Amino acid sequence: MNIDYTIGEVELSYKPNFRSLHKATCSEDAYRYLLSTYREGTICYKEYFKVLFLNQANQILGYTLISEGGITETCADVRVILQAALLTNSVAIILAHNHPSGNLKPSKQDMEITKQVKDAAQLMRIKVLDHLIISDAGYYSLADEGLL
């Protein structure tokens, strides 16, 4: 009996750009950096869930697109968010997603995913600093509104 014991290789990568780390000192800073990650005309097209990764000094290590969905929703997986945070050696993260409608009010689902990520991240000693709901005209910060 010939058994093939070949298994797939797991390869994870992160390519930091330490020459130009920017600080996120407030929700407006985070909004500005996140807004720049959208190609022109896409923020009103469909939902995108993104995460900013920060070091101890609140410098932005990078960002990633967690999911992209339809007009009214996108599905963010807590495990994928934390995997990326661990890979980047982040001590803090800022969650963000856009509402194509322009309505910045958080939904029940927005509040649920925020709590799920916050609870899971706490186990890893990673702090969720904020969850921003963004549009091309402005943003809503759960932290600024005391909802984090």
UniProtKB/TrEMBL annotation:
This is JAB domain-containing protein. Residues 23-148 form the MPN domain. CDD domains: MPN_DUF2466 (cd08071). It comes from Parabacteroides absconsus. Keywords: Hydrolase, Metal-binding, Metalloprotease, Protease, Zinc. It comes from the Bacteria. Pfam families: RadC.
